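Fill in residues.
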């Protein structure tokens, strides 16, 4: 099997590095997100689910748990994208991004055993 080649955009490379080095709050954001995806996947008992990430809602949830001034919408969005690209998920095949009429982005991840495994390998 050939290795998947994913080019990580330059602004996200720093976030990938921060997550790999387990820097807070970036690592905490991703750890929480992967745990939530796994819970929803196991609860639904289906071969694949689409997990939608709304950065505004995620930021509000994280602010309740993690007291850090670096939890901004921009950092949440970039951390999510760093996770998706850093774990070598393929855009359109494993995840896709939608934009609301107001310009906000939502991230949709197709969670199945393979993608969940890649996400966890990136984190740990």
């Amino acid at each position: 099997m050939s290795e998947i080649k994913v080019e990580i955009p330059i602004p996200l490379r720093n976030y990938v590095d921060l997550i790999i080095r387990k820097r807070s709050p970036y690592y905490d954001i991703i750890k929480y997100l992967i745990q939530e995806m796994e819970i929803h996947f196991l609860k639904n008992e289906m071969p694949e689910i689409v997990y939608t990430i709304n950065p505004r809602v995620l930021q509000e949830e994280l602010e309740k748990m993690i007291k850090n001034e670096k939890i901004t919408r921009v950092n949440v969005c970039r951390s999510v994208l760093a996770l998706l690209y850093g774990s070598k998920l393929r855009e359109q095949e494993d995840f896709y991004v939608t934009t609301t009429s107001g310009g906000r982005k939502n991230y949709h991840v197709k969670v199945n055993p393979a993608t969940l495994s890649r996400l966890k390998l990136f984190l740990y």
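The radius of gyration is 14 Å.
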